[in-house]
Amino acid sequence: MVKRRRSQRRGTSLLSHAEPFVWLTGGALVIAVAMIIGLMVLIVKEGGSTFWPQRVVRIDSTDGTSRMGEISSTEMYVPGPHVMAGLSDDTARRVRDVIAADGGVRRRMLRSGNFDLTGTHYTWIDDFAASGESLPEWAVVVERMSWGRFYGFPKAFVIENEVVARGPEAAWSRFKSVHASVRARFEERQDLETGAIGAINAEMEAGRLALRKAELSSGTGSFEYEQARALNDEQQIELKSRFESARDAVRTLDAENARYQLLFETADGAEMTIPAVDIVRAYAANQLGFVERVAVYLSRWWEFLSEAPREANSEGGVFPAIIGTVVMTLVMAILAVPFGVLAALYLREYATQGWLVSIVRIAVNNLAGVPSIVFGVFGLGFFCYVVGASVDTLLYAEKLPNPTYGKGGLIWAAFTLGLLTLPVVIVATEEALAAVPRSMREGSYACGATKWQTIRRIVLPRALPGIMTGMILAIARGAGEVAPLMLVGAVKLAPELVVEANSTAPFVHLHPERSFMHLGFHIYDLGFQSQNSEAARPMVYTTTLLLIAIIVILNITAIWVRERLKRRYAAGAF
Amino acid sequence: MTNTFRVQMPHKTEVHAGVLEEDPVLDIEGFQLWYGSKQALFDVSMRIPRGKVTALIGPSGCGKSTLLRSVNRLNDLVESVRIEGNMLLNEDAIYGPGVDVIELRKRIGMVFQKPNPFPMSIFENVVYSLRIDGERDRRVLAESCERSLRGAGLWDEVKSRLSESALQLSGGQQQRLCIARAIAAEPEVLLLDEPCSALDPIATGRIEDLIEELKGSYSILMVTHNMQQASRASDFTAFMYLGRIVEFGRTNDMFMTPHLGQTEDYVTGRFG
Question: How far apart, in whole angstroms, are the C-alpha atoms of residue B27 and residue A62?
Fold first, then answer.
């Protein structure tokens, strides 16, 4: 009896129980999920709060200076010996007491702006050095076209150097009444510059290129060349007059806008005149109610999503980068998916399975493990400098030595990333093809279908959801890739979009040769290349949030399509 | 028991007298087949009568399905298959140089063990063989679809949802759909490879009724494991064992008065 009980106990030892392994596997999953959720929470919280308008705090220091701005962070620290040496005995004793009690003194970072006056965007203010703080009613946050933010009190509104309104309230209400029209004139002027003047410049360039083409094909002294030159000269004169009139229109608008100025006084008492046209957005932060703050928040998001960047990318929007990312990813998918599917079809359906096919398959899988920067180098060396340069000599000889295709551009970036994601597509497609039941193929052959008819009508439709999975993985991988893009076409600031609306059919025009902005590269640029890194940091989070959102949207669209296909071919109850 | 059985293996097929009088739709002459070095069919010779149902019975692995799949050359898809001998479908050689396998398969319908509807609508499933022939005329397709579905006894159940996925049908309906698909091409011979083995008794009964109805308009060669099914549904029965046709005759004779002891052992269930 005793013996039997012992053997039972031995039989149910801890290791043979399932519970420890349930904990082990479950714990691993929990850690993975917690890390992902932690990352998402951080990005959503930081990225989502970037545009929320904070209160403007005025902090007076014991040395008599005053700073005003938004508090961006708070930390505890122990001041170094040279800081302590600079303090008065009384203050030093107070600081030591606080350190003894709390382990450090608090200091706050104030986004104080006014870079053109102070030379800094941010100021650290120690609590022990502050003599008082307040939320001034007329503290105004001004987002400017240049120099970053300005914090100050409106003092007077000036039209043509004449003060027309004095005092914060009057000046502010006058400013608000004209600001919208000033900005509208500014938009009009910008449109003229990029639209009309841009078109004239393009025509001038086209004329020059036509002349150069005639020179290249017929030589300088020839009749064709002289004819082309006469035509070009005539055109240039006409274009010049059109250019002058457009520029006059711009000048008129500028002159009208230049009349309006707002005079500010800073917390320190310095005066500052800001032209109304330079003010993108201005609000009296401490007077805003909740609804008005939401309005400012939303208007900043809208600017972020719909405008081009300003101030070395740390202000303004990311619209060109959104367009660049989406278009590049779609072009990549259009290039990579059909190629990958065809390659997988041959590998799985036609090739005789043997050692050669195995080697090809291993090579394809290894391709997925090659560092992406290697693809970037290859893309630059092969696509840009070999293929692109050949295209230039063949088709765009008159533009040389300026490269058209022989440099980084959307098409080469899409090719490079297509190459990078090809293994993903091939592997996923092969698996999907292998999963098509043999009985279905045999049924098709038995009906007298050829191999290609069987593939096209039975195998491919049935494998389509699996192929879509491969496409989703490829898009997710391709849209998030940055390193190769830096070599083959992504730029810090692209003056022109890669897609442009057009008045003639097909209405949307793709410029595959242009360089483009990319959200991933934009994040890198903001985080590591920005001169105003403190101001850029929240934008890094916001841009990351946006990039993730775009990838999620692209994937959800693909998953939606896949589920629809799956439902169409869903196996019934059997 | 198996050993003693093997010793008694005859080398010549015992063919009942009545069979040779029938007009053959399919004439198999000295057919042999190897998978690699393993021989699966030994000198198979039989004449499948026109307009009748012929059942192939025998224990698992005896080569029934292999013989069936040799008729429409589906075994060509398997690597390392080698054959000898020939088959004639209405006097046209099935094997031999210059035979267009694709065209040949269009003359032969086949229904498999497990229902294998294609991942498309019921309509497209039925007219599949017409589609791959390039038929585009909607009226011709619809006519063929209705005729085939009526022929397979499925029309009334699916006529209102022809555009729905075929994969939503029940197993029995799927199998009848596969039969409809096979007869849509108006084949000269219909091969049924254990068409009821994956179905419940009610669905099996319906398929058997269907086979009864198809008899006369189609020549059917059917593999089955089920003695009752063979005796109920077929006119002729061939008993196969270890790659050979042991005995071939009218179903009644085969079940009531078999000439050979092995056949009797098998059909009475003493061996199987």
Answer: 113
Q: Would you call A378 exposed, middle or buried from its count of C-beta atoms within 10 A (0-12, 13-18, 19+)?
A: middle
Global confidence as pTM = 0.79
All structural domains of chain A, each given as residue ranges with its CATH number in brackets, are 57-135 (no CATH), 152-287 (1.10.287), 319-572 (1.10.3720.10)
Q: What are phi and psi of A313, to 5 degrees?
A: 75, -10
B102 in contact with A, Cβ within 8 Å: yes
ipTM of the complex: 0.89
For A252, residues 6+ apart whose C-beta sits below 8 A from its C-beta are none
Transcribe A113-148 into DSSP letters.
--HHHHS-SEEEEEGGGEEEEE--TT-EEEEESSS-
Query: Quick one: pLDDT at residue A3?
Result: 52
The H or E element spanning position A267 is: none
Cis peptide before A401 (omega within 30 of 0): yes
Residue type at A193 in one-letter notation: E
Interchain contact B134–A (C-beta under 8 A): no
Residue B40 lies inside a defined structural domain of this protein: no
Number of domains chain B contains = 1
**Pairing status of strand B189-193 against strand B108-111:** parallel
Q: Do B118 and A439 touch (CB under 8 A)?
A: no
Q: To the nearest whole angstrom, how far is the Cα of A349 from the nearest Cα of chain B?
A: 12
- Give pLDDT, residue A26: 92
CB-based contact, B171 to chain A, within 8 Å? yes
> CA–CA separation, A184 vs A175, rounded Å?
14
Q: What is the pLDDT of residue B56?
A: 92
pLDDT beyond 60 at B6: no
More confident residue, B17 or A418: A418
Is the Cβ of B128 closer than 8 Å to some Cβ of chain A?
yes
Residue at token pair 């022109």: A496
The reply to whether B45 falls in a domain is no
Q: Do A457 and B108 touch (CB under 8 A)?
A: no
One DSSP character per residue, A212-237 reads: HHHHHHH-TTSHHHHHHHHHHHHHHH
Range of the domain at B145: 50-65+98-267
Q: Is B74 close to A445, i.e. CB distance below 8 A?
A: yes
Q: Identify the three-state secondary structure at position A457.
A: helix
Give the gyration radius of chain B's Cα atoms: 19
Q: In this predicted structure, what is the pLDDT of residue A573?
A: 32
Distance from CA of B213 to the nearest CA of A (A): 22
B187 to chain A, any CB pair closer than 8 A? The answer is no
Residue B86 belongs to some domain of the structure:
no
Give the separation between CA A194 and CA A432, rounded to whole angstroms.
Answer: 49
H helices of A396-518, where? Answer: 410-434, 438-446, 451-454, 460-479, 483-488
Task: List CB contacts of B246: < 8 A, sequence separation 6 or more.
Answer: B10, B13, B14, B58, B239, B240, B260, B262, B263
In a domain, B29, yes or no: no
Residue B216: count of CB within 10 angstroms of its CB: 11
Q: List, run by run, the mean pLDDT of 10-residue segments along chain A (574 residues).
A: 53 71 91 95 90 90 88 88 83 86 88 87 87 89 88 90 86 89 88 81 82 78 79 84 87 88 89 89 90 92 88 81 90 91 91 89 88 92 89 79 82 92 91 90 90 90 86 83 89 80 70 86 87 83 90 85 74 37
Shortest Cα distance from A483 to chain B (angstroms)?
42
Percent residues over pLDDT 90 in chain B: 19
- Å between B211 CA and nearest CA of chain A: 19
* Cβ(B261)–Cβ(B254) below 8 Å: no
CATH number at residue B255: 3.40.50.300
